[in-house]
Amino acid sequence: MTRLYNQPADFAGELTEGFVAANRDKVRLVDGGVVRSTQTPKGEVALVIGGGTGHYPAFCGLVGQGLAHGAAMGNLFASPSAKQIYTVAKAADNGGGVILSFGNYAGDVLHFGMAKARLNDEGIRCELIAVTDDISSASVDELEKRRGIAGDLTVFKATAAAAAAGYDFDEVLEVAKRANLRTRSIGVAFSGCTLPGADHPLFEVASGKMALGMGIHGEPGITDVAIPTADDLAEMLVEKLLADLPDDIPDFKGARAVVLLNGLGSVKYEELFVVYRRVSQLLEERNISIVEPEVGELVTSFDMAGISLTLFWLDDELEFFWHAPASTPAFNKGSPLREIPLEDTVAVADQHAEVSTASDASKQSARCFLGALKAAQSVVLGNVEELGRIDAIAGDGDHGIGMERGINAAVERATQLVDKQYGTGSLLIEAGDAWADKAGGTSGALWGVALSALGTAVGDEESPDARTVAKGVAMALNNISQVGKAQLGDKTMLDALAPFSEALSNAVNNGAELEEAWHQAADVAKQSADATADLVPKIGRARPLAEKSVGTPDPGAVSLALIVKAVGNFITRTKSLAA
């Protein structure tokens, strides 16, 4: 249990402040995360890593000479927003381009992908490396669907060392891809982790059992088995990894590998050394040369009791990069590096004046849309725990918290813009940006996309009518489909949004006013969300635990159905008040 905190909502920001205060010789704070506080050669390719907070020393602890140039830090177990990633990448860029690397989770893929697009649009070359080392999360035939766990470290280290060696962008990118393909991990958990302010863990493991194949965000394991002895556990993990060799290593005998034995938060170092004793014996018995192993906390999950084992299969070049020196707050290797502090810089505030050019009709309509957002806020806040509960069955349990952060940020920003006399379109676009920025995660990205699309369709010239709103919802559906890559039947929010959009458009086209059309569509969304209980997830964090989710509706579909129902009730109340 996390015992020391002030307000749970402030935990991530406060820990970042404290981390920077304790490590000013290596890192400095920027909006969205941290970057090096020491000089980097001009033209060097920059590695920016990131993910949710709660995994220290990943990700901020790995920023420094010889390793990452910056780290984007999301909220607790939530991916950083595209805005945060973009800001960190801009601060870390040395003129040689930026490689963004992160664990392969849906929210991270979305947000890092959007940040990449923005950087590319500005002429900064940028590519993505999603780490896919967890063998339990997908089969060897679907490597691209595997998630990233403690193997993040080996990929980050090789990539950064190649950049420090003066490799050009394409060469660094090739090293990163090769390191990822040669990294394999598997983990177990004995108990779940508890987030600040929560009174129960994200998941529980039965007494005397361990969850095999857990993830670092509290995702439950693939199967529960009896807790073995330390030696038996070592043998289980080693055998599973040796059965999943990279394609270019047909025979492990005589091979060289870096070994990471990672503690996830509550397993003590003494226990790790007992397990590692047997791991090293098993590998040496198979004529595998162990190169500079690491035993300790490398990628954690708050107070989760668990461990993971990683094998990083080396070639001559990757071995050279693993040996290369590094100096960060949490990871040091090799000879001391010459670290030259950056000159003090003064941040220049954005002097852009917020000036509205909206029509009076659009400004008045913006107040109604703020009311709709507040109605959504009310229903989200009333269902945070339930949304978290259904998400925890096959996911990581943070959907309710993420929705809370997102809608609160959207309402706050929309309120500011109404006071500044902004129009409806601009209000919705900026509210969407605020939602995505504060919520992080998959849902944050998708709701940001949805509000932005609706705002674009509505614009700032007219007071939107039923057809314009229906068009905006259809645009939101289209954009979410493109960004999220989900399809109907994948068990996502799309399974409620698509029927809602279709029903809304059909009702409007048949002559219904917005109130009637919206209520009809909201009923369809509720039915469709309930029906997702029968589906098996095909993408996202719930996919590896597909069977566990059968019988429970998708949390993203449920939250969307709740919101559109609340907005429909607001439309009715507004109409009756006007009358």
Topology of this structure?
Layout: H1 11-22, E1 27-30, E2 33-36, E3 46-53, E4 70-76, H2 82-92, E5 98-103, H3 106-121, E6 126-131, H4 152-164, H5 169-181, E7 183-191, E8 209-212, E9 223-226, H6 230-242, E10 256-263, H7 269-285, E11 289-290, E12 294-296, E13 305-313, H8 316-323, E14 326-327, E15 332-333, H9 360-381, H10 384-392, H11 399-419, H12 424-439, H13 441-458, H14 466-484, H15 494-509, H16 514-531, H17 546-549, H18 555-578
Parallel strand pairs: 3-4, 3-5, 5-6, 10-11, 10-12
Antiparallel strand pairs: 1-2, 2-4, 7-8, 7-13, 8-9, 10-13, 14-15
Helix pairs in contact: 2-3, 3-13, 4-5, 6-7, 9-11, 9-12, 9-18, 10-11, 10-18, 11-12, 11-13, 12-13, 13-14, 14-15, 15-16, 15-18, 16-18
Q: Could you list some keywords that capture this structure?
A:
579 residues, alpha/beta, Serine Threonine Protein Phosphatase 5, Tetratricopeptide repeat, 2 domains, seven-stranded mixed β-sheet, 18 helices
Write up what this structure looks like:
The protein is an alpha/beta fold. The chain has 2 domains: 8-333, 3-Layer(aba) Sandwich (Rossmann fold); 360-578, DhaL domain (Serine Threonine Protein Phosphatase 5, Tetratricopeptide repeat, Alpha Horseshoe), CATH 1.25.40. The chain is built from 18 helices and 15 strands. The strands form 3 sheets. Strands 7, 8, 9, 10, 11, 12 and 13 form a 7-stranded mixed sheet that branches. A hairpin with a 4-residue loop joins strand 14 and strand 15 (332-333). Helix 2 packs across helix 3. It is globular, with a radius of gyration of 24 Å.
